[in-house]
Amino acid sequence: MRILTVCTGNICRSPVAERLLQAGLDQVMPGGFEVTSAGTRAMVGDPMQPLSGDIVRTFGGNPDGFVSRQLTGKILRGVDLVLTMTSGHRGEVLQLDASLLKRTFTIREFARMLDVLDERGVGPASTGTDDGGTPLSANAAFWRGLPARAASVRHLSLPADSADNDIIDPYRRGPEIYRQMEDELAPAIVSVLRHARLNVPA
């Protein structure tokens, strides 16, 4: 299951989401997920910002070895789920690949949808086949079908303010803005990981 997180520079927000989702999902299903990230106007080749790295370490992830990269159509090919940091980033992803319309969400809206699914007890769908007709594992089938299940409860998870879909950009701003970013992003990551843990295939 390939998940891509997207922000602007790919040095503050999406790297935190990438490393923390990867660390958490590795605990749920080792080897079952590949989480990467990219930026719509990336600081190509730069490492993660130090304060973002501190956040990753705080939650048990590893920020080492990260290198920023530019979002391209090639990167988007083969991605199963795109989680963006703002609604604007979602629009930019879809400009590059409109076929990802039903698999691209802001991370905060996706988390709210998963919370609704958890409250309603909506479990995995039946297993299916991939594009080549090969039977999917229970885990692959669950995650391939998750965007559609999440979108089906979108109307039950709308925010009071559309700005609540976005994660604040802390680039070139003080530690207090990084803390705000953490406060907005961490609960969304927790919701994704909780949903994954609740739906581990038997």
How much strand content do the residues show?
5-15%
Distance between the termini: 18 Å
Rg on CA atoms, Å: 16 Å
The major beta sheet can be summarized as: 4 strands, parallel
According to CATH, what is the class? Alpha Beta
List keywords for this structure.
202 residues; alpha/beta; Rossmann fold; 4-stranded parallel sheet; globular
Question: Could you walk me through the main structural features you see in this protein, from its secondary elements to its overall organization?
Answer:
45% of the residues lie in helices and 9% in strands. The chain is an alpha/beta fold and 202 residues long. It has one domain: Response regulator (Rossmann fold). Strand 3, helix 4 and strand 4 form a beta-alpha-beta unit.
Task: Tell me the layout of helices and strands.
Blueprint: E1 2-7, H1 13-28, E2 34-39, H2 50-58, H3 73-76, E3 81-84, H4 87-96, E4 104-106, H5 107-120, H6 138-151, H7 175-198
Parallel strand pairs: 1-2, 1-3, 3-4
Summarize the structure.
The protein is α/β, with parallel strands linked by helices and 202 residues long. The chain is 45% helix and 9% strand.
